[in-house]
Amino acid sequence: MPPSETQSALPSRSRRRLLRRIAASGLVASQGAAAAELLKPLDVAPSSRTPGAPVLEHPYGVPSPHEAGVMRRSARAWPLPGAASSMTPLGDLFGTITPNGLVYERHHGGVPDIDPDQHRLAIHGLVATPKLFTMNDLLRLPAESRIHFLECSGNTGSEWNGPSGLPVQLTHGLLSCCEWTGVRLSTLLEEVGGVSVSRGAGSGAWLLAEGADAAAMTRSLPLDRILESALVVYAQNGERLRPENGFPLRLIVPGFEGNTNVKWLRRLKVVDAPLQTREETSKYTSLLPNGTARQFAFEMDAKSVITRPSPGHKLTTQGYYPISGIAWSGRGTIRKVEVSTDGGMSWRLARLNSVAQDRALTRFEADWRWDGAPSALLSRATDSTGYVQPTRAALVAARGLNSQYHYNAIQQWRVEANGEVRNA
Ligand SMILES: Nc1nc2c(c(=O)[nH]1)N[C@H]1C(S)=C(S)[C@@H](COP(=O)(O)O)O[C@H]1N2
Ligand SMILES: [Mo]
């Protein structure tokens, strides 16, 4: 039956019921012309008249050309070659998983080209039997897949001094969430016969992780805190890692600041104290108001942001809008998200419309009827430890304005009377 006949084939009683329902829904007022269209048979869609493109036009699939504007972008120009970042277009995405081509990138020395057949992972230091692993060795160990967010500790640093005017991609886009597949760190340490430093409270078992890139990114990590959750991964969202995200191997430390998730991983060394590398002394420490530095602030604190509507979006008519966003915590799951549409004077509970997973993005949504008046939209996350996302004033009071990293304050978007959404 050609598609044009399906509409008129509806029995007239159910057609009348359908039209009554459309009228009752209020859609008729705003879409009168569209509703009137339904009274006559629909035309055959132009795209139904001829066969479409063949299979294998794109042996590796690509998004619709109509989505060409959805891409990673950089917030600023970087002064040194290879040291740069690109940001995930959060305002254009749905659900909680970041597609591989849109995962943010942060490199300190560019993206190395590594032959997986030549690549080795060394596990050495205070272990019983130091070993070199090939990629094939790693693929023959028990695998595990887990969904975790990855956030650069510099994410949202643009807002320390107040609203930057930037859209959500450029304020919060050093954030992605993937399903990571690889080998548990604990399995690998068993493979080298175990660790020969006494572990437990007060002891000093640390793990030095180093990348094979030009920056030789190197971080020391407290072994006790990461042993149960860290993964050495070779795949993201079902396929091998992308070169820019660490191909062929990277470390995933769930909930810890992005830079500890060392890409192009070439060695793990068990040591008895942190090595005070460049990335934990001159970088990735925060200068506090009392003049001391906050070092080894590993966990990313609970945070949330509204992604739709967000700056760059425009509300076209008054009426119902879902407020949609994401929330996450480096210390566990998201317990609740509250939303305000009046600048924080009143709050109400949002629905969590994805399963709240451990150290992963959670999608929330709240109903809102825009009455055309200027509004201010905010979201506030509470995590499973009871920690509540702070206001900017509270965060600045605690950390001062010399802290570049770990900005997690409540974010406000203004809705103007003309429907424009702004970070102001
Ligand atoms: N070897 C190496 N690992 C690295 C980096 C790097 O420059 N080199 N950048 C780190 C930083 S600062 C972040 S935020 C994350 C970014 O991971 P992504 O590019 O996969 O999003 O990787 C971390 N791991
Ligand atoms: Mo980072």
Describe this structure in words.
The protein has helices spanning 3-8, 12-24, 27-30, 32-37, 135-139, 168-172, 185-191, 223-226, 278-281, 392-399; strands at residues 84-86, 105-107, 120-125, 131-134, 144-151, 175-184, 206-211, 218-222, 231-236, 239-240, 250-252, 265-271, 286-287, 293-294, 303-308, 319-328, 334-340, 348-349, 351-352, 362-370, 375-383, 412-415, 421-422. Helix content is 15%, strand content 28%. It has 10 helices and 23 strands. Residues 1-11 and 24-28 have low confidence and may be disordered. The chain has 2 domains: 100-294, Oxidoreductase, molybdopterin-binding domain (Sulfite Oxidase, Chain A, domain 2, Alpha-Beta Complex); 303-423, Immunoglobulin-like (Sandwich). The chain starts with a helix and ends with a strand. It is an alpha+beta fold. Molybdenum atom (MO) is lined by residues 106, 152-154, 258-259. Residues 108-276 form the Oxidoreductase molybdopterin-binding domain. Its cofactor is Mo-molybdopterin. InterPro entries: Ig_E-set, MoCF_OxRdtse_dimer, Mopterin_OxRdtase_euk, OxRdtase_Mopterin-bd_dom, OxRdtase_Mopterin-bd_sf, Sulfite_DH_SoxC, TAT_signal. One of its GO terms (molecular function) is heme binding.
Briefly summarize what is shown.
Helices cover 15% and strands 28% of the residues. It has 10 helices and 23 strands. It is globular.
Stretches with pLDDT under 50, minimum 5 residues: 1-11, 24-28
State the strand order across the main sheet: 4-3-12-7-8
Overall structural domain count: 2
Proportion of residues in extended strands: 25-35%
**Number of beta strands:** 23
What is the correct CATH architecture of the largest domain? Alpha-Beta Complex
Averaging pLDDT over every residue, what do you get?
Answer: 92
Structural class: alpha+beta
CATH-defined topology of the largest domain:
Sulfite Oxidase, Chain A, domain 2
- The value of Rg in angstroms is 25 Å
Globally, the shape reads globular
Through-space gap between termini: 55 Å
Counting H and I runs of at least 4 residues, what is the number of helices?
10
Bound molecules: ligand MTE, molybdenum atom
Give helix % range.
Answer: 10-25%
Q: Just give the CATH class of the largest domain.
A: Alpha Beta
Largest sheet: 5 strands, mixed
